Amino acid sequence: VPDLKVAGRTSSCQFKGDNLDLVEIGKTLGVDHILEGSVRKQGNRVRITAQLIRASDGFHMWSETYDRNLEDIFAVQDEISAAIFAELSITLNLGGQNQTRAAPTTDIAAYDRFLEARTLMARRGYENLLRAARLLEEATQIDPEYAEAWAVLSQIYNLIPYYGPDAPEVYIPRAEAAARRALAIDPNLSTGHAGLADALRDQWRSIEAEAEYKKALALNPNEIEANSQYAQFLQRVGKPSESLTFAKKAYDLDPLSFVYSAVLANAYHGAGQHDLELELMEKSLKLDRAGFAHLNGVALRLAHEDPERAIEILEGAVAFEGRQKPFPDDSTQLVILTGDRDAGAAFLRAALEKEKGVVEGRQTWFYWMWALYYKDYDLAFEVMSLELNNPDDFFDSQFFWIFRTPELMANDKIREFIAEKTFYIDYWRSNGFPPGCRPIGDDDYECD
Questions:
Q1: Which of 278, 182, 260 is nearest to 223 (CA)?
Q2: Alpha carbon distances (Å) from 395 to 87, 256, 364, 388
Q3: Staple 231 to which of 168, 246, 252, 370, CB 3.0 to 4.6 Å?
Q4: How far is Cα 214 from Cα 223, in angstroms, rounded to an integer?
Q5: Is the pLDDT of residue 151 over 50?
Q6: Tens-place pLDDT, residues 7-22
Q7: Nearest to 293 by CA among 203, 163, 384
């Protein structure tokens, strides 16, 4: 139903078990109606109660109780959605039509694993993602034709290297294979195209990746993760204004997700809307339990020449799951506090030399961000070279654009290296150069 906005599960599940005012819940989620209910299970029987409530005044528009066998769960889902559609189509004059769908799997054990894995994926965190991957691997073994399980497994494989020490060269090919398996079963599965897009993006196959993101969103414009990942893709290729549209869509659909709040903060930064950037950054930090919002917050505050707040964010970061220290030695902070950029750059250079070959993940991003804050572009080039030449890591270039300055864009070594290693030249020639950038000849470019 194209005209119907449905809040995402991360935000909706925040209210599970809470006896909160429905009007406030409606405002928080940005919705006019709330579907609430309960599930009681005994043996192979299940009782589902559901009621549709108008958030503005608590009026009960529809309610029903279903007693079924667990094997009938997908039929019950269709019955509930059909009843809601019938009720709202008159009240809201909805476009579209209700369509029953084929059951995604015939095995309730596979479906149980899928539901748990999807919840863990929304929470992020290294251990959560590893467990989610194991659950979906089991689900696809139970039912090898379970397309949605293959598709979400692809998305999780793509995320694991961002949250843990695992090598992208191990997980990204798995992600591509899982996405292609999903699409072989169901070519019109939005999440399958989204997972494939993520895998192609992280192999620097940018033109192919964007085509898959567009397919995913054409099939389901409300696919939340696809909107968010496409927004991050557009940030990486230097298109902040375009990124904002998709980042805002993901956030509007799931406003209590720390991931989508942080991505939107980043997009507001690129679009120059700094009051909104700060508001969303602080919101994402309050919600975060996996570290992404903290990394993003450090980058944004350093880009605004605010090292004091960046340090506070570091000190307030939660213990990241299943990995080494997310940032280098704490004594780095003491150098930062002195405000002596030369001393800070010297310290970072020494730390980088000491840890060369073992720096990974967020630690590399940490060096990159501080090097740019100190405006030591030679050091930034060394960090970029270390990461892009390391097959066990990859450079997330959305942080490159956060720190875009005339001095950075004029640095020939960085400019040439990012063009050579990230293959963006081909993408830019096909899809347009970032604002302020233009081609030079056949294999070069310049930016203001």
A1: 260
A2: 49, 28, 9, 6
A3: 246
A4: 11
A5: yes
A6: 998 898 888 877 788 8
A7: 163
Averaged pLDDT, 176-190: 97
Give pLDDT tens digits for 71-111: 788 888 888 888 888 888 877 777 666 666 777 888 889 99
d(CA 365, CA 394): 10
Give the Å distances, CA to CA, from 59 to 63, 300, 376, 378.
Answer: 11, 44, 61, 64
Spatial CB neighbours of 254, under 8 Å, sequence gap ≥ 6: 7, 8, 9, 10, 11, 224, 260
- CA distances to 24, 89, 156, 173, 391 from 169, rounded to whole Å, are 45, 48, 15, 7, 7
With beta carbons less than 8 A apart as the criterion, state whether 37 and 60 touch.
no
Q: Which one, of 230, 284, 239, lies nearest residue 260 by Cα?
A: 284
Residue 325's pLDDT is 47
> Tell me, what's the pLDDT at 198?
96
User: From the centroid of its chain, how far is CA 60?
Assistant: 35
Res. 186: pLDDT tops 90: yes
- Tell me how far apart the alpha carbons of residues 309 and 93 are, in angstroms, rounded to a whole number: 48
Which is higher by pLDDT, 347 or 317? 347
Using the predicted structure, report yes or no on whether residue 426 has a pLDDT greater than 60: yes
User: How many CA atoms lie within 13 Å of 250's alpha carbon, on the beta-carbon side?
Assistant: 26
Q: Please report, rounded to a whole number, the percentage of residues in the chain having pLDDT higher than 90.
A: 37
- Alpha carbon distance 191, 217 (integer Å): 9
Instruction: Say how far apart CA 192 and CA 197 lie, in whole Å.
Output: 9
Position 359 scores a pLDDT of 52
pLDDT bucket at 440, cuts 50 / 70 / 90? confident
